[in-house]
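Bench notes, afternoon.
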Amino acid sequence: MAAAAAAAGGGPQPPQPELPAPGLALDKAATAAHLKAALSRPDNRAGAEELQALLERVLSAERPLAAAADSEEAAAAGGGGGPGAAEEEALEWCKCLLAGGGGYDEFCAAVRAYDPAALCGLVWTANFVAYRCRTCGISPCMSLCAECFHQGDHTGHDFNMFRSQAGGACDCGDSNVMRESGFCKRHQIKSSSNIPCVPKDLLMMSEFVLPRFIFCLIQYLREGYNEPAADVPSEKDLNKVLQLLEPQISFLEDLTKMGGAMRSVLTQVLTNQQNYKDLTSGLGENSCAKKSHEKYLIALKSSGLTYPEDKLVYGIQEPSAGTSTLAVQGFAGATGTLGQLDSSDEEDQDGSQGLGKRKRVKLSSSTKDQSIMDVLKHKSFLEELLFWTIKYEFPQKMVTFLLNMLPDQEYKVAFTKTFVQHYAFIMKTLKKSHESDTMSNRIVHISVQLFSNEELARQVTEECQLLDIMVTVLLYMMESCLIKSELQDEENSLHVVVNCGEALLKNNTYWPLVSDFINILSHQSVAKRFLEDHGLLVTWMNFVSFFQGMNLNKRELNEHVEFESQTYYAAFAAELEACAQPMWGLLSHCKVRETQEYTKNVVRYCIEALQDWFDAINFVDEPAPNQVTFHLPLHRYYAMFLSKAVKCQELDLDSVLPDQEMLMKLMIHPLQIQASLAEIHSNMWVRNGLQIKGQAMTYVQSHFCNSMIDPDIYLLQVCASRLDPDYFISSVFERFKVVDLLTMASQHQNTVLDAEHERSMLEGALTFLVILLSLRLHLGMSDDEILRAEMVAQLCMNDRTHSSLLDLIPENPNPKSGIIPGSYSFESVLSAVADFKAPVFEPGGSMQQGMYTPKAEVWDQEFDPVMVILRTVYRRDVQSAMDRYTAFLKQSGKFPGNPWPPYKKRTPLHPSYKGLMRLLHCKTLHIVLFTLLYKILMDHQNLSEHVLCMVLYLIELGLENSADEESDEEASVCGPERCHDSWFPGSNLVSNMRHFINYVRVRVPETAPEVKRDSSASTSSDSLSSLHSSRRPKVLQRENSGTAQVFSLVAERRKKFQEIINRSNSEANQVVRPKTSSKWSAPGSALQLTTAILEIKESILSLLIKLHHKLSGKQNSYYPPWLDDLEILIQPEIPKYSHGDGITAVERILLKAALQSRMNKRIIEEICRKVTPPVPPKKITAAEKKTLDKEERRQKARERQQKLLAEFASRQKSFMETAMDVDSPENDIPMEIATAEPQVSEAVYDCVICGQSGPSSEDRPTGLVVLLQASSVLGQCRDNVEPKKLPISEEEQIYPWDTCAAVHDVRLSLLQRYFKDSSCLLAVSIGWEGGVYVQTCGHTLHIDCHKSYMESLRNDQVLQGFSVDKGEFTCPLCRQFANSVLPCYPGNNVENNLWQRPSNKSIQDLIKEVEELQGRPGAFPSETNLSKEMESVMKDIKNTTQKKYRDYSKTPGSPDNDFLFMYSVARTNLELELIHRGGNLCSGGASTAGKRSCLNQLFLVLALHMRLYSIDSEYNPWSKLTQLVEEMNSQLGNEEQPEVPILYHDVTSLLLIQILMMPQPLRKDHFTCIVKVLFTLLYTQALAALSIKCNEEDRSAWKQTGALKKNTCDAEKSYEVLLSFVISELSKGKLYHEEGTQECAMVSPIAWSPESMEKYLQDFCLPFLRITSLLQHHLFGEDLPSCQEEEEFSVLSSCLGLLPTFYQTEHPFISASCLDWPVPAFDIISQWCSEINSFTERHAEQGKALLIQESRWKLPHLLQLPENYNTIFQYYHRKTCSVCTKVPKDPAVCLVCGTFVCLKGLCCKQQSYCECVLHSQNCGAGTGIFLLINASVIIIIRGHRFCLWGSVYLDAHGEEDRDLRRGKPLYICKERYKVLEQQWISHTFDHINKRWGPHYNGL
């Protein structure tokens, strides 16, 4: 092999010995050094040959293996480790050779030193977090890596963070894409400093080695590629090859990262054509090389590409470029020579025969396209590498390598040209690909880097015909999915459209190509070239016409469509992306006058394309019925370029408009869409399914409206301004199918519309006219005015967040044009029209976001209902806007009733569109308005207030826009056309308003009331209208007011059309074809129609005045205001008319009419003088009666409703007071057990299920609805004030050793080490972690009712948010979450009151009684229902928490464990209540937690169970506290551990044990007795702790002073005396000894004063006093006094009865005065101290530690979060998981303890529990609060359920940014965080958050 290889290298074969055997790195290094030396000589031929041979051998050694590994046989033969090892070896060789004998790492470092790159160029793949700054970007695609972004200065810029979808590269340092001010520190400096020149010999070896290496890679790629067989996709094989090549490509990638010097070498290698030719020509004897070249040619051929120069190589006949590959394919029926039909297409053909009539279209310029589409010639490594990259469908590694090279300018140009050269091939591969999504992303990843640079794009456009290539490729791509259009003339249509059901459109496969096209059009130089090139424009219009009329909808008339097609998504996306966005791109370059030529070009070819389209679909004048397409991109191109021409380029509109006939055709389809919208909203398309509504909504939706409905309406406005107004108006009513409705007759029949749709279609038609006439978006508004109008419309519908506003305002949808036309103006307009409402927090309510709401003056002056109607996607939004407007008027006192939409003044029209206003002054419209006013007045059916509103709006528009001078005062009849002159004399609305019409002849069904039997009037016989079953109002053509007048819209329209057509074609052969389609019924088929003459005698003015009477319900209600106040006529703008209802509108119109003409004013006055009786008197009175009746009925209904509401409100209030009484537990009477009225002997409970009241009894117990949950909140208390912060760097880690839970744990294990286990378990409390908290909503139910309720829940199949099997339910009354029922103990209140009376027994007697009562064994009551429930609830309590939180005993299952657990439950609940009250009891009576307490019932249940465990009297601590025991040292044998000394006991635990051991209910004096005794112990503990805290001198000083006072009378109540005694007693042991190093830590440096000592003692005792007071409050129902913090101690001690009543409060309070010793103090103290001394003999250190108990815990808090979210995000989103050391997909952090966890991470799963769930059990005993790093939201885990809580980080506009989609900077919202913390501490997550779901341990 080596020999052959060397020979192939050409030249003599070098002597063998010189090639050392591969193996030792040393040898490799030596060889490399030797070769480097040889090559450095001036004559280096020998060295070069030697190197070639070596490379040939080394690099080829692996190739056959790799190839073998590819083929199946090798796999079978088990050629396992071979290839890998050989490749490793080859790479090692390459590295050594590159380094030339030195170390590879040193070589890398050396090369990096010469890196002149001023660009960052970091390449990233999908999902990478990058930044985009719009302030610094020149190109909108600009992006920065996080590092460059943070190193640069972007304060105050408009930037956002985003997750890359397709991958990208950092542009820092590239001044073509971004402004230099935004460069980061690294890339600013680099550009200026000089980099030294690279020494020649450093990279010499690379220049020799790399060509062979890359060639070797290409050979691999050639060999690994097998053409996919026809049926199986070969992705597996390709991936296998790629995996094998992974190390090679990574090696190249590493080379690119060495910096500029290495990149330029690589560029040389990749682009050098000579090298490529030498190595790959395939000549020579090397069989291997030959084979690989053959494979390459086959691959080229199978791709449908030719290789032009190889005619006869290896006898493979290549088809020449001309014949393309069609000949090879043998595809006979293909039209022309399309290189398109390659193999995969052929498969397509067979596979999708079902798609029906597929039709290919031949392109005219096939020769040019041929070269673009089919010929590829590779001249360098780079070109072939790209070819294989495409063939292998863009493997990520290759893409990254190719992009990493881009910072090299020379490479960038070469690569761009290569990319363009392969463009057609990319398109073909993309179409065939199965993974088109991934592939699209990778293509765009590359192209966006190349085409965003204007300079580069321009160069490639000039040198490589980039535009030709792109347009041709797009055209070809779409041609593969064309079908015949069915629009209009189905049989003869020649038009083809894309088929929206094809994968190409459905999956957006065209997206990358279109995206590139839009990208290059954003560069002015490229766009200008496009607009100047006529050939390109023709081709492009051809492309656009493929979309014209796609996705045609046909109205289903009979049954509902079976299958709702969803193709409309594809259609709308295609029009927006492939047509509209390129259009916006082009428009952005037509902004100035100099660009007029471009517009003329586009408009010219647009009209040509439209003309071809009309011919192709065979269109004459009538659209086919019942079909509509929403896609008319040619119309829209035309419209938008017209608009631009007039607005920016000062072109004369008429110069670019076509003739009248063309305008008539142009208006038909957009008008058809408007009519169809009304039909769809009238439910006429209901059988087409929901998707048709979806289309109607998408058409007006904010992302589409300005590329769809806006251009359509503008085009209609242009047509209306240039066509005959009568023709236009009649067309509108005919399209909307309401012509038949416009008759004076009270009955009519409509052949094209059902009666139930008539009203809404008429409303639709009128609304459309109002929009058409009042919209000024393209007719003269400036961009800022448009923005303002859009914003006002959106804000009027609803308050909006900032982001939803940004989203709802239609932007210029070209994504390359920045976010919004001037987002600076966006902010300024927003602040001008809206007020910001900061987010509100109701604790327990929903958390709102920051909203913008319209300012008052906006409602007052700018609310524009027309704009709102145009922009609403849902009809309900119009109503919402009106409701808000109504509310504003009521609130500001402007108008009390139900207002009508206000009339808004419009921006003046641009002079070019003045003709539009002729619509308002045409007789046809006036006849329609007159007819409608008359019909409304006469109460005809199918008319609504909305119709009237629109009619008045149109009249008002006409008055506002009338010709100024009133030339037609004399009623001059103008013009030749006198068709409806009989109706109105002229065409000016102002004069026509006063024209009286006397008689009208109508055609009515014979049954109609108007028919007089003797009617002998002659019917007119108008030939045209007789075609249309002549039954419309007709006009006799004589000008004689005595004769009736008739009027036919359709006939009119036909005649006009005829005239225009005849005018435009002299050979008038295009006569209107008579319609015979089913749309027009034949004359006789309908009801028999007959003619009647109606007497009308009204004018528009008189109708209006009568309408005023009708609306106000009073006769003669209108009185002309100017008769009283002439001022009105001088300054007409009167605010009183601007808001109001119909009456106001009529008054406003009459005033305007009077202002416009003196005649009108006179006539109005006349009409008002004649107090006219109503026209047909019977009819009106009936109608009036009807309205009056209606009013009365309404009034009564209103009163009834008010009454009901009031009643309901009072009920609700009483429910709130009894049931949800959250804030005032003082009114708890119905629920509380103790404080019922004295005469009732037992507490009475209401069952919320059966509704009965009664006491709880043994056999039918009642229970409280409770929620039991394990809680570790207490364990999170810390002893320092400094709040813990969330770690945001490696240094700040949190150690939990200072939490309450940890301290208690340490204490217990210390005790268990030295003392007897059973005794230890009585000396402390557990439940700091995993303690059980019990809370209730306060509602009670019978336990048997509850059982049946649970059964019904179990059978209820509705999915609840809770698990019934786990006993969970919601309270039947208040729906609060619960999971158990706590039985109420039948209690006798009278007895209870007796217990509370103080007795005068001495303390000694009481102590005896307590001891006796405790000694009595507690028998469990007999088996009653109650006792069963007590047991079951106890079981529930135990099961609430995990086993590890219950079992602390060394002997498992010992009864001591249960005992400990039970009194700890009581402790947990008391401690938590204390925390809810803020940690102290200063606030007194009412519980600040605001929750009902069930402690009383809980105590009874616990006591019942505790009494079952009797403590042996010798172990009972009570005796140790109250009796002196003789010394019994003998007893302390060494065989067992001693008991815990009493001074080490936790006093609060002792209290609970003593009380729970007593028979319940407890007597008050016994309680006080227990407290007094325990206080003495506590005080002694405090003194002992104090004595340890101080140093030796202090101790001896105190010992002295106290000893002196020992014999005074109240020595037992003086702390000095007691302290000195404690010190002297403890000095006997070794407690104070060994004070070495340890001691300093405990001793506080302060000098102790009597005040500070007193304070220390009080603080030590306070926690006990607080818990005891709470307990007393619950057991005996006494109120807690409120007080100042300073006096808390004295108030609580007197409340507990510790303070003697006669105690004087003048002198400073001394805690010792509360002491009441049951036995002589000194004796008992010395007894207690001796226990300690005997312990400290052996363990002095531990003895000291146990004496000092930290009792001052601060309230629990969540971790403090940083101000800015970015600090959290940057640290955690890259942090690796501690288990698997990968970066988790969904990182999260616990807000309680700061632990970093993977959400849903499988790596951290333990026994099917994912990490978050596991952590929530360990950290919060089942409650976890996690911040999801990538989403900025907080997730709560509670047991087996979870919920998304929301975010505590909001942006500058008070909004959340879930999933960081917007990527704006987020800041902590302190209020929200407080709410979260509050819910955590008060355990109310379950009640407040509503949306819970099961997590199945998968979080």
